[in-house]
Amino acid sequence: MPVSVVELRGRLRRSDRPVSVAVVVGNLLLCCVVLWLVAGAGATTREEETASWVLGAKIYGIWLAAGLVLFAVAGLPRTLLRHLATMLLTPSALFLLMVLLSLM
C-alpha cells in the first residue's frame, strides 16, 4: 500500500518530539567521540594526531550539515533546533569541562 508524500510528512511531524530526544542523545554521544578524535585518540606522532583531528572535523561537519538538511526537509522544527543546539553547545561544554579538569 503506497504512502503519499503528504501522509508521510504528517507522520513525521507527529513524531517530532520523540525523534528530537533520540537526536539529542545521539548528538551527545557523537560529540564525545569527535572530541576524543580531536584530542588525538592515542596518536603517537604529529601526523597521526593531525589525521585524527581532520577525521573528527569531517565527521562533525558532515553530521551537522546532514542533520540540518534532513530535519529541515522532513519538516521537523523541534528536532532541527535541538540538533543545532546540541551540535553547537556540546563541544564547547566538553572543552570547558576538559580545561577545568586539567586545572584541578
Automatic annotation (TrEMBL):
Top-rank taxon: Bacteria
UniProt keywords, alphabetically: Membrane, Transmembrane, Transmembrane helix
Protein name: Uncharacterized protein
Transmembrane segments: 19-39, 59-77, 84-103
